Amino acid sequence: MKTLSGKSALITGSTSGIGLGIARALSDAGANVVLNGFGDVLAAKEFVGQAGGKVIYHGADLSHPDQIADLMRYAEKEFGSIDILVNNAGIQHLAPVEDFSTERWNSIIALNLSAGFHTTRLAVPSMKKKNWGRIVNIVSVHGLVASSHKSAYVAAKHGMIGLTKGVALELAQTGITCNAICPGWVLTPLVEQQITSKAAQQGISYAEAQSQLLLEKQPSGVFVTPEQIGALLLFLCSDAAAEVRGAAWNIDGGWIAQ
Ligand code: NAD
């Protein structure tokens, strides 16, 4: 069903992984979609645009606020407004806190936290004009609980949940909602890197490292999929979710139930 016909969506970091799956779900539901990210743009456009609305791309590096402003201007010029904003782009780096470089810290905070502030502040005025909007932040279980060696990531993701709640409250008497989705392990390039380095560090196979990584944290032992996250996001975009405000919704194979 084309429940989002006539709506426009911007999904940051949507050339691979979770963002790509979400872009496809939104496009399948009839939305026009703005893609962003550093992956294979042609393949992403082809995959996303198969069934749905118009698909365009902007290559902003979201660690730079001026490039974010350019992306937002481009999206509004092409589609008139951004009705659905999905803050998804994110990076990861693992190191003990005493070895965590300042440069890595700054780049993770810039992308995983500050970029979401900038896109939100720039998207809200046109959402307010229509009195309708959906802001969905793809956070992580690491917005709710911590793991070691991920200080910047955990700090940024906890910050995103705070931003989600604050924005949701400011907009509580409007038709604009702001919520967070908190996935557990999803098999994407971001996680494949972690499996590869775990296998190298421990001298075990990729398959063994993958199964250990899952079972250490995710009781189901099964990866969450981008399609499942896309389906949850479509629900948050629906009228049925109009009073879901400031939620941090985990989809994590039981990770934070422990
Ligand atoms: P991914 O590496 O597949 O995708 C990240 C996307 O962000 C890519 O399109 C990449 O090109 C883009 N990107 C990276 N740096 C960018 C920059 N400076 N400017 C613009 N785009 C940039 O990763 P993923 O696993 O799909 O992660 C997507 C989001 O989901 C991230 O915020 C991540 O923290 C979160 N998340 C992932 C998992 C998981 O298990 N994969 C779990 C919980 C949360």
TrEMBL record:
<dbReference type="InterPro" id="IPR050259">
    <property type="entry name" value="SDR"/>
</dbReference>
<dbReference type="InterPro" id="IPR002347">
    <property type="entry name" value="SDR_fam"/>
</dbReference>
<dbReference type="GO" id="GO:0003858">
    <property type="term" value="F:3-hydroxybutyrate dehydrogenase activity"/>
</dbReference>
<dbReference type="GO" id="GO:0032787">
    <property type="term" value="P:monocarboxylic acid metabolic process"/>
</dbReference>
<dbReference type="InterPro" id="IPR020904">
    <property type="entry name" value="Sc_DH/Rdtase_CS"/>
</dbReference>
<protein>
    <submittedName>
        <fullName>3-hydroxybutyrate dehydrogenase</fullName>
        <ecNumber>1.1.1.30</ecNumber>
    </submittedName>
</protein>
<dbReference type="InterPro" id="IPR011294">
    <property type="entry name" value="3-OHbutyrate_DH"/>
</dbReference>
<dbReference type="InterPro" id="IPR036291">
    <property type="entry name" value="NAD(P)-bd_dom_sf"/>
</dbReference>
<keyword id="KW-0560">Oxidoreductase</keyword>
<dbReference type="Pfam" id="PF00106">
    <property type="entry name" value="adh_short"/>
</dbReference>
<comment type="similarity">
    <text>Belongs to the short-chain dehydrogenases/reductases (SDR) family.</text>
</comment>
